[in-house]
Structures are given as structure tokens and as C-alpha cells.
Amino acid sequence: MKTKLLFLFFSIYSCFIFAQTKENTKENQKFYFPSASFSNPKDFEKNLNNLVLEIAPLEINEKTQTFSDGAETIYLLQKNYQGLENYSKNENFPKESLPFKSFAEAMIADPTQGNQFKKTFTENFSRDFNKMNGPAKTNIAKYFDEKMVSSFQKMANGFIDQLSKKKTDSLSYTDAKKLIAFESQKRVNSAILPLGKNIVKDYIVEFFQPFITGPMWISVVKPKEVNDLPDVSKDYKILFEITNFSTKNTKETAFKNENSSLIEAGRIMNLHVASGISPEKLHIVVVVHGSAIDFLLNNNSYKEKYKVENPNLSLIKQMQSKGVKFVVCGQLMTWDGLTLNDITENVKEAFSAKTALSNYQTQGFVLYQLNDKD
After folding, report:
1. Over 90: is that where the pLDDT of 334 sits?
2. Secretion signal: which residues (predicted)?
3. Which residues of 85-104 are buried (b: 16+ CB within 10 A; e: fewer)?
């Protein structure tokens, strides 16, 4: 009996270890994709096709009907439209990927994307979309929101630029999946956007920027059933702490773009104004230290370090014009050999970021730590 139990234990343990090893192998695998091909369309297409062939068996098992997240994007790049349509019948097919399903059905009907393609997509997408519940319809509508599509394209371009800067001949599993997702979306967008936008128009979320203007991610939306609003008669003291210049995924390209934490600070400011609080009731301080100090550099200092103009200055100056106070860490300035002449105008230097944070919190400021790492 003891021997049988011991054998059973080792059998289960071995299966567990094997399953873990298999999964770890996939997650840790590297995929051949020379960075030089990002600047050569012909090589890029060839290597993308090879990448899809290599990764497809790891994500799709039609025999057992098991599919990883994003399987539909692989089918699209394979131009395996029948496979995608079959997958759409699986109970685990993501509802928000309905536009991909409708695109595949239309391509089966008319690979030339002519009139029959348009007719099939419009009829099938409209039929299936109207069967969805509210949350699903809202998620699907994002594919037809021109602002979202534009921001998505900007993200895709930034990601490809980031990969090209790595100067390696391989992609990680995560980067490979992301590249496939971006490319499949890009190839479908132009065909489906004009066909589906009128069908989903009532579910496209309205974005607006009531106080600070900038990229789409600084925008806020209008909830429909708000019944808990802030007291608009009170003053609101808001303290932001920003420490990172880049995230772990944007180290190679962060210098070209506005700082993501600064954008999030702008979004939070917009949330307060959109909720009914007057801008005159807002008292805002942004304390900057760590590597984030770079986004406060003036153009001359920024150009000397990164060879481009500082993309953050317009947003910083707009915030300052609306009463936002920027404070930089004096300890870091000293250690880095910087003076206020290296920093953009009208920035205050505190003895340290820590004492500044203590000072403003004792005055009743509410602290938001915006330290993106991902």
C-alpha cells in the first residue's frame, strides 16, 4: 500500500513538474527576429510570417480545442480565416474579438475585399453585435473609435521603434505576442473601421479634457449614473510624487515621449475638474525626484543628453500656467551636479524630496505616488 501511494505521489509530482517546465519553456523562449528587419519592409514581412509559424503551435491546439489569449490574432496573420471562424464557435472565444470574427467571415466570402466583403461584414457584425450585452458592446466599440485607433497606432509605432533599438536578433515570448497583436490589429483596422463605426456609434465612449489638454490618455469620460460627487465648495490639495523617467518596457524610447506619470497627473487633475470642482479650488504640487528629474530639464540640457528637444515642456508649461507648482529634489540636484539653470523655468528646489513630501502632507495635501514600473 505504501509503495502504491509513493508511486502515485511521484506520478502526480512528475506531471506537475513537467507541466511547469513546459510552461516555463514557452515563457522563456526566444524567437528569431533580427532588429534590422524593422527598417526593411520585405524582411519584416518575411520574419513576421516565420514568427507566426513558430509561435502558433504554442498557442493553438485545434485537436484538443485549447487556445491561448490572442489566438485570433495568429489566425489573422496566417490568413487562416476558416480556422478563426471555427475558433469563434469555441466557448472561450473572447467576445471583444467579434470584429476579427466578422472580418474572417467577410474574407471567406470575398478575399478581394470588394462589395461582397463589405456586405458580409456589415450584416454579420451587426447581427452578432446586437446580441451582445452592454459591457461587451462598449469593449467592441473601441475598435471603431477613431481616437482610440489613432492612439493604438501610435503605441504600435512606439513599440516597434523600441524593438528596433534593442539591436538583437531575437524577441522574447512577451514581445513576440505583442508584435503579433499590433500587426494583426493594424491590418484589420482600415478594412473594418468605415464599415462598423455606424453600427457601434451609440457605444463609443466620449472622451474630453476639461482642464489639462494633451494626448488621449490624459482624457476622462462621462459616467452615466454618478450618485456620489465631491463637495465642490471645498478646496482640494493634491500632491503628486513622480520618481521614474521611464518604465521597464520603455527604457530605449522614453526620451522621445511625454512622461507617462506626468500624463497620469494631468488625467487626475482633469478628473477633479470634470467631477464639478472649480479649477480655482485646486491646489496642486508635483514633487519630482529620482530619474524623473530628466523630464524637467530645459531644452538645452535635454538636447545635450538625448539629442532631441524635451517633449514634456509644453505640458509642464501648460500645467504651470494653471497654477501647478513643480518642486525638484535638492539632494538629487547636488549629487547629479545640476543647477536650476539646467532645469525648465519656474521650478522650485526643495532641500530634499522627502522633506517636501512631509511639508505638503502636514499642510493637508493628499499624496498620489505615480511611480510606473511596467
Report:
1. yes
2. 1-19
3. bebbeeeebbebbbbbbbbb
